[in-house]
Amino acid sequence: MPVEDECDASDFQIRVFEPKDYPAVKRLFIDGIMENVTPAFKEALPLPVNLTVLAGIAAVTYVLPGHLRWLGVVVATAWIATVYWCCHMFYAIYVKDKLASEMKDIEKHFLSSPGNCYWVAEHKKLKVIGGMVAVKSCVGASKKDIITPDRKNTLNKSTPANIIPAQEEMGDECPRQNNAQSDTSHHKAECQNTAESCEIFRMIVDRQYRRHGLGVRLIQTVLDFAQKRGYKKCVLGTSKAQKAAQKLYLKVGFQLIKTFALNINRFINVLTGTKEFYFEKQL
After folding, report:
1. Interacting residues of 63 by C-beta distance below 8 A, sequence separation 6+
2. Reduced to 3 states, what is the DSSP secondary structure of residue 120?
């Protein structure tokens, strides 16, 4: 993808998603999610469980005869590779699930209701998609789907919600269609079943366009939309490894209100120490 040397957030226009954007949006979604594997791995390796295992391997290796100590190196390498694999699977499961559901039909899941929207940030000159963000009303989130503290350990899949945050002027209004169909299976405990709350999704900026203010423009686009629609609160979730996203959310006024572990898979959970961070902002 071509990149200008002096790219700035003002070089992008924020507009509503169009069907022609899907290939670029899909690529950005996959890349944006999967790039978190390495940061997650770096956080997982120093966990007590992994350090304990590696220390045990080192101790056993030390007492082995010299000609067998190579086995210790092999086992230690295999354990480290397993930790990386678990981090990879944490995000890969999420990507697979989303591509088979809401990302498969963005118009149906994000543009079929006046309370929802999906924006892309398109470079005015290069005509490439450099970022995106979506918002959905919490209306329709059933008690079954809402994740309460009592249910937080019964989840089957990861939900590392959003990636690198990103805003601009409202652009075109989101279409208002009848028979809105909403995907409620991933609304959080903070996204109560009320017309006064909305949840932010798919906050991603292409890495080559970061640190130029595009993230802040995308965030503000959502907040402006939410206030215009009468929402009183915005919520969102992000994974523990997404440090840049967390800093941006705090910078624009979101507050961290909850952190908890997700029971994706016992083995993956233990080795990765996966956690979900939830933020909210009163409008």
Report:
1. none
2. strand
Q: Which residue has the tokens 């290069």?
A: 126
With 90 as the cut, is the pLDDT of residue 75 above it?
yes
Q: What is the spatial distance between Cα 109 and Cα 36, in angstroms, rounded to a whole number?
A: 25
| Separation CA 101–CA 50 (nearest Å) | 34
In a 13 Å sphere around the CA of 216, the CA atoms on its Cβ side amount to 11
What's the pLDDT tens digit per position in 169-216? 334 456 544 333 333 333 344 555 557 899 999 999 999 998 889 999
Which residue, among 142, 166, 147, has the nearest Cα to 157 in the 3D structure?
147
Coil vs helix vs strand at 279 = strand
Query: Which helix (H) or strand (E) is 41 found in, with range?
Result: helix 37-44
Would strands 233-239 and 197-205 be described as parallel, antiparallel, or unpaired?
Answer: parallel
DSSP H or E run through 82? helix 70-99
Nearest Cα neighbor of 98 from 174, 192, 28 is 28
Looking up tokens 């309370």, which residue turns up? 115
Could you tell me the strand order of the sheet in which 117-123 lies? 12-16, 117-123, 129-137, 197-205, 233-239, 275-282, 255-261
DSSP for residue 174: P
Give the mean model confidence (pLDDT) for residues 121-145: 80
Give the CA distances from residue 147 to residues 37, 83, 153, 188, 282, in Å, rounded to whole numbers and listed in that order.
25, 27, 9, 5, 20
Half-sphere exposure of 114 (CA within 13 A, CB side): 8
Q: Are 44 and 87 in contact (CB under 8 A)?
A: yes
> Cα(240)–Cα(182) distance, rounded to whole angstroms?
27
Pick from 155, 167, 163, 112: nearest CA to 136: 112
